[in-house]
Each structure stands twice: as structure tokens, then as C-alpha cells.
Amino acid sequence: MICGYIGSVLFTINLFPQLYKIYSTKKADDISYGWQFCCFGGTSFSLIFALHTPYHHMKIGLTIELMNIIAIIGLKKMYSLKKILPIINE
């Protein structure tokens, strides 16, 4: 049981360093959309599965992980647009 909680916490926080780096450098060029959408899909399906289990730590952890992935996709899109449209930089 404790392994499930530890794994859930680690899985939940694993993208925080990446989010911090993207936010502080204002660049997400090295992160591929392929990885993002595979990670998004895998986490989404895992969350759907977790919703049918009694394990709340899985539901919470996967929900936070999904929000992190959505934030990374949004930041990548935003910083890509800033390169294309210089008016956004103001």
C-alpha cells in the first residue's frame, strides 16, 4: 500500500522540474509534440482506468500529472507563437 502512495507522489511531481525549466528559459523547443501527446494519451487512459478503482491516490496523482502535461503543451504552444508573432513579445 505504501508503495502505491510513494509511486503516486513521484509520478505526480516528475514533470515539475521540466515545467520550471520551460517557464524560466521561455523555451520548449527540445520537447517533441509526439512525446507530449503519447504522455497525454497514456495518462488519460490510466486516469480513466483509475476512476474505476477504489484507489484515490491514483486518481489524484494522475489528475495532477494530466494538468502538468496540459501546462507543458500550452507553454510550448505559447512560446512557439512568440517566435512566429513578435507582437506577442510585448
What does this structure look like?
The chain has 90 residues and is mainly α. 77% of the residues lie in helices and 0% in strands. It contains 4 helices and no strands. It has helices spanning 2-13, 16-25, 33-50, 56-84. α1 runs parallel beside α4 (56-84). The longest helix is centred in the last third of the chain and has 29 residues, at 56-84. The chain is elongated and about 50 Å long. The N and C termini lie far apart (50 Å). 12% of the residues are buried. The model has no long low-confidence stretch (mean pLDDT 87).
Short description, anyone?
The chain is mainly α and 90 residues long. The protein has 4 helices and no strands.
Largest sheet: none
Order of helices and strands: HHHH
Cα-atom radius of gyration: 15 Å
Strand element count? 0
What structural class results from the helix and strand content? mainly alpha
What is the number of helices? 4
Q: What is the residue-mean pLDDT, rounded to a whole number?
A: 87
Give the fraction of residues assigned to helices: over 70%
Query: Unreliable stretches, pLDDT < 50, 5 or more residues?
Result: none
